[in-house]
Structures are given as structure tokens and as C-alpha cells.
Amino acid sequence: MGHLNLPSSKRNVKQWRLLDIVTAVFFGAVFLFFLLVFTPLGDSLAASGRRTLLKSSGSDSKHRGRLVALVEFGRQAAAIDACPADMVDHMPCEDPRLNSQLSREMNYYRERHCPRPEETPLCLVPPPDGYRIPVHWPESLQKIWHDNMPYSKIAERKGHQGWMKKEGPYFIFPGGGTMFPDGAVPYIEKLKQYIPIAGGVLRTALDMGCGVASFDFHFLGFSFDLVHCSRCLIPFTAYNASYYLEVDRLLRPGGYLVISGPPVQWPKQDKEWADLQAVARALCYELIVVDGNTAIWKKPNGDSCLPNQNEFGLDLCEESDDPSVAWYFKLKKCVSRMSSAKGEYAVGTIPKWPERSTKAPSRASMMKNGIDVFEG
């Protein structure tokens, strides 16, 4: 029998080529799916995409403002995405990368520096790995979960001072510190010998903490009955006593200033201690006591002491100065006038606690219907 030779069909060749392309695209899509879902590359691309998306959400400032307002008022139904995992320590106003580029003058770079709204990702900062429901109050006064703040450097460096120690799964706070190793209670009892802590006379107190920042407190003038520093290491007399003047702005007339630790009778800090006393005298602060390394002063009730001859060139602020204007201003180089505050602010002239909690303060009268709002 002879063989029948049939011409090859061009149509079948085209069909096979099309099938090959479809098959290749399908398997390529499957491969890409597994690559993105089950490999670190997918996580990285997703995180990068989320960052771009979250930042782009702020490109329209009006839209972002409306979204933020809805979230704050609890009216936003749409879920807000979580930030990428590497943003677990994200603090918008405490970004070391930004702060390291700022001026060192007066430790300005250690202040809070918040980015513009359009530069801030709108997302929820994720908790650290192993995060647990916090220890309930009042037990949390003495301990917290280590995994909720998994950084042990402070405990390792300061554990011997009793500030903070790692014990099993917890950080514990035994009490104590450099200036009161036996705990805060004996230290407070010592202060009670010189300050009317009990009885409701003193209620509002500001502890200045460690002096590693620029020491710029955004509080209303004459807000505190007592200002306290325990080894805060703040150079109060530097920059023409600018730091001391800020304390004076915050402290009520007749209020108390307590400084424990350097430079109060501290080795090799005789000049700093002498300068601190000189500033206090120039502002007419009464030295109540020097007990070991603790000094206590009482602020005067009026401006009559100034202007006073002093080596720091201190003088009263202008009559127009408002001691309660503190946001976005540099530290003042002048002494806030107590007469500029409307109403009664001096310690001893305002109601004692707890009566103070039910009586409208003088500042309430400065706003429209303030007294009615307070009493309502």
C-alpha cells in the first residue's frame, strides 16, 4: 500500500502555540503566587506597598484630616491597616534618624520633633512579639511583662540602684534610686519635715526627671505647688539661668523647689552649687534647708524683689508677656511677672485638697462661661 502524505495544518500549529502561551502564563501566575505568599520577598514587597499606601493617604490633607477626625470620634467604620512589623518601636515625634540631624544647642535635638501630617503614616503600630494583656492595677505598680517592653538595657545598668530589675517574665520596680536607695517612702518622710506635704496644701507637683532633653515644659504658668528634681542633672544656671527661669515660670507663688543630688553639696561641684544658690538669691527664693544633698527653696509671693543686681543679668519680663504661652517658644531669658497672672494662684490662697477639686479655679473665669462650665 502506498502512504498518503497529508500537508501539515497551519491551523493546528497556531492552536498549539496559543495553548503553550496560556499554559506558561498560568504556571507563571501560580509560581508568582507562591513566591509572594510563602517567601520573605512577598512580605517585603507587601510592607513596602503598605508604606507607600499609608503615606499616600496623607497626600490629600483634607481627606486625611476628615479620616483622622472620624477615627478620633469613633465614627470610622473602615479598618485602619497595621503598620509594617519593623515599625514596632515607631514614635513619630521621637525619630532618632531625624533628631540626629538637628542642632545640639541646649540639647535641642533631644526634644520632641513631630513630622508634618502628610509625612506620618496613618496606621496602627503593631505590638512586639509575645505581647500580653498588661498586668492589672494596682499590681502593675510593682511589675510589668518583660515581653511588652523587651529591652533590658535600663535594668542591666540601673538594677543595682533599685529602679528596675528583670525577674522571670517581669520587669519589677523595687523602689529606690540613686538619691533614695531605701525607697521613696523614707525620702518623702524626710521632705515632710520641711514641706507641708500633708493636709491638702500641696497638690500639684512636677518631677523633672532626667535632664537629657532641652527642658522645655509646655504647661501654663504658675501651675505647680512643688517642683522636684532628684539627680535630674539639669544645669539650672546655664545660658543665663534659663532653666531655672523655666522652673520659676511653672511654680506657683509661695511654691517649693526641691533639688536632690548634684550640685547640692556635691564633690567637685562647688562652683555649680554656688551658682545655683546665687540664682535663687537673685530671685529672692528663701532657702528652707540643706539636708545632705537635698536643698529646698520657697518661692516669694510677689515681684517686689526684682529688678535685683545679680551676675546673671536677670530682669522681669515685659508687662505684655504671658507666662502661660509656652508652645513653640524658646526658653525665656526673663523672669515671669506674677502680677501678669489674673486671679489667685499662690500656695495658701487657693483652697486645700479636696475642696480644690470642686471649686472653680481662677483660670476658669478667663474663658467665656468658664465658671458655669466647671460647675456644670
Automatic annotation (TrEMBL):
Natural source organism: Forsythia ovata
Q: Name one GO molecular function term.
A: methyltransferase activity
Say which family it is in. Belongs to the methyltransferase superfamily.
What protein is this chain from?
A: Methyltransferase
**Alphabetic keyword roster:** Glycoprotein, Membrane, Methyltransferase, Signal-anchor, Transferase, Transmembrane, Transmembrane helix
**PANTHER family associated with the record:** PECTIN METHYLTRANSFERASE QUA3-RELATED, SAM-DEPENDENT METHYLTRANSFERASE
Q: Where are the transmembrane segments?
A: 21-41
**Annotated InterPro entries:** Put_SAM_MeTrfase, SAM-dependent_MTases_sf
